[in-house]
Amino acid sequence: MARVVTCQTFEGRTVAFVDEVIGSGAMKEVYFSPDRSYIVAFYKTRPDPRARERLEMITGRYRESIFDQVGGDYWRNLFCWPTAMLEHQGRLGLVAPTYPGHFFFEHGSRNDDRLGIKGKEKEGKWFAAANLRNRFVDPRELGDWLGHLQVCLRLARAVRRLHMAGLAHSDLSYKNVLVDPSRGLACVIDVDGLVVPGKYPPDVVGTPDFIAPEVVITSHLPKDDPARQLPRRETDLHALAVLIYMYLLYRHPLRGGQVHDIDDEQRDERLAMGERALFIEHPSEPGNRIRVADAKPTELPWADTERLPFTLTGPYLSPLFQQAFVTGLRDPSQRPSANDWETALIKTVDLIQPCRNLGCEQKWYLFDNSTQPRCPFCGTAFHGQLPVLNLYSSRAEGLFRPDNRRLMVWTGQSLFAWHANSLIVPNERLAETEKARVGYFVFHAGSWWLVNERLPDLMDLATKTPAPIGGQLQLLDGQRILLAKGEGGRLVVVQMVEI
Amino acid sequence: MPIRRLPVYILLDTSGSMRGEPIHSVNVGLRAMFSALRQDPYALESVHLSIITFDIEPREYLPLTPLDGVNIGEIQAPDSGATFLGAALELLLQCVDRDLRRNTPEAKGDWRPLLFLMTDGSPSDLHAFRQAIPEVKRRDFGSIVACAAGPKARQDYLRELTDRVVTLDTLDAAAFSGFFKWVSASVAVGSSSAGLADQVSLPPPPPEIQLLP
Fold this sequence. Notes:
The complex is a heterodimer. By secondary structure, chain A is of the alpha+beta class. Chain A is built from 12 helices and 22 strands.
């Protein structure tokens, strides 16, 4: 048994660790607390005074500004944030919560965990590459496409929170974000390198695959050259867009078939990620399309951008991908903000439909609005009656404006307070009372029904028939339903699509 | 999503002096390295391994194989025998010339290969060794690391091949496992955060290993 070392944090809290290194990275050595509820990590080389000051801010003021507020607890699941600093035998260290158990592989890899990854961290790369998913990762770990949407939502939300606080992560990558697609969870780790514009410059340029083109292009310049571009909020936004693209489409948005230098593969790589970076699905410049013929069988169908184009991510995410990888690739100010991604992802979740094919790997997909919709992943066609609710919200008494937002109905689907009122947003500020569903949909005896659980104002507007709590309303084509009265209250117009 | 291969060549001394505990320790270290690499999704996507052993003759023990297909048995060392390191380098050149995929205008080729060489002695075929060196250097390896294992290993010869020479004081399991752990970390380094100071560099070696100036 290794011995237990007890020491004090700078603010006088007693902490303990088992004197046995459990992990070692480039910068730190990590130890478990005796009950494994937190870790203590010591820097291998002493951080300079600025880095130390930054660490003090991260464990102090920045942490308090995020966690010690209303809704602050919400963020404990989205960040692994260091809580204190300490010094022991001349080494500077920090205390941080242990990653929750669901961020470690439960089943690991296929064939009875042949690779031996059970119990290891769920590094995002395992889930972001088609070949790794198809060949190695146990299907029970992979989750479904809805889980991946939720992973992206939580990731975008965490980044939005950092940016709102005036911070930038500076090294977002699948290594620094733990994900659990089987439960739709994500957690940003390694926040001790945070960048504060004008105050604490970055330590790193980022991780290959996620470094913004402007950083790659100027990486040869000295650090203090005014033209040198370093990680900041806008480069986080490039990394965020790449991560979301990879978690939804299992391929890299800039890694296509184009070869830029046939003699020097490192220069080719620099050009492909920097000066000549080109979206593999650029609408008018096809030069960097993936050559499907060169793809490994285990990379299909994801390598086939004709078959699975980025537009399968629906009407809210697709324009953001265009913005990130076409207009915003060279113009950082054009990149969608983390808030843009978060909003689009919330709206996208309302468009999801379960695939009729029980064997479908992705299980969920977005309706493409065509007359013959089918699951883009397995090709199974949709049959039957699909109610589409178009959302309108009240701007003034009796006046409802379209929200450019729809809710696709499936049986068992829930209706929530944020559907009934446009002023309620499903994020960290959501009150406990707003979290429970207010109604649900069910297909019964050939008709679609909305069952009212907690909507006091629910009413069919044409007939002025109220549907009291505990009652139900049959959904009909062209029907207008009031979900809630008052400011922000929503009205839906039902469209019955018969396929 | 064309993924470049990262070819990794490992040259292992199996001369007579390696027999017994040393070669056993090498096998243990190698196996630990494979399992560590397989747990790294980046390595699993890109790394291809080749092992060349050498004693009185060089042998292509493992032709260039994707990481997940690697299955090595127990590498043996004969009772006695010389250390034909020069011949091993010649075989390495043939293998590299045969294996390596170059870039073409249509397809991405391989990353620059990495070479790790371990010996516990000195080349018995010094002339061939010296003749092969300029050819090896012309092959543009991404990195060449030579490991002088044990008290009899001659570092000065290795330094003619590369300025990255590491030494292992002993030939036991701890020393080799430290070395192979370091090799595996070096191979996987491409996926980690890159520092502000330009080139990606090898991680600092573990305490058992001394990196010569």
